[in-house]
Amino acid sequence: MPKQEQHNKLDVPPGAELAVRRWLEMAKEAQDTRRSSDTEQQCNVCRQVVAVGDRGESKTGDASFVDGGAIGDGGQRRANRDGGHGDDCIAINSGSSFVNISDIFCGPGHGISVGSLGRNGDDARVENVHVRNCTFLGSSNGVRLKTWRGGQGYARKIIFEDITVVGVKRPVIIDQNYFGLLDEKKSAVKISEVSYRNVKGTTSGERAVELSCDPNVGCNDIVLDHISITKEDGGESKASCTGAQGTCFLCNPIVSCLSNLHLV
């Protein structure tokens, strides 16, 4: 096989070829159109980020990051021009608001995360985040919200929609007890008004949806709308859910602690 063909050959799950092809095209476009704009108050800067999965390399239209792209402190983006990463494709940190992220192809790595928030008891605040039209290929996580036990503040008005997952181990996650032990004496970052809409694809793990919320503070106004995630072998995936309140409309798998609604 010619050397060039060997370089471009990727082992991808069945049905993912088109996504990977577009993924590589966007990466090349990003390399050819580098721009410099490191801060924007309304953080639309991430709309051109592309995380490329061949050996963990990450590329964007502006820079390459260890942590894909990090947003925080009033919507600023912190850039590191190290070409490889194995962490979050994009991390949305405390101080972020009115964040719009779209058209991302991510894999491998840890997906797109809000957080982690509230480490060492910090007062963390994130609101008005919209992540849409993103594809995750072989990543450990898909779309995730994670907060530390003992933190303060809030994460609210967050929407993930039109998400495709291909062989993702943990596609949908809310973890209000990130790296912590349950302790009634400790506080938690409040999580509310979080929606996952039209999330579909396959998981390489057992659980497609994981909602792990604090037993006292809890997660409120959680909406899962049109979720359809099966196992890679075609089997049924599972969901785990504690401490969350909200609704689940046309969800596969069923999320037990939410009010499950179906068309009649």
In short:
The chain has 2 helices and 18 strands.
Characterize the structure shown.
- It is a single chain.
- By secondary structure, the protein is mostly beta strands.
- The chain has helices at residues 3-8, 17-32, and strands at residues 50-51, 58-59, 70-72, 76-78, 90-92, 97-102, 105-106, 112-117, 123-137, 141-148, 152-168, 170-178, 190-203, 207-212, 219-231, 238-242, 244-252, 259-261.
- The strands form three sheets. Strands 4-3-5-8-10-12-14-16 form an eight-stranded mixed sheet, with no helix packed on it.
- Strand 3 (70-72) and strand 4 (76-78) form a beta hairpin.
- Helix content is 8%, strand content 48%.
- It has two helices and 18 strands.
- Mean pLDDT is 76; it is low at 1-11, 30-68 and 74-85.
- It has a domain at 88-261: Single-stranded right-handed beta-helix, Pectin lyase-like (Pectate Lyase C-like, 3 Solenoid), CATH 2.160.20.10.
- The chain starts with a helix and ends with a strand.
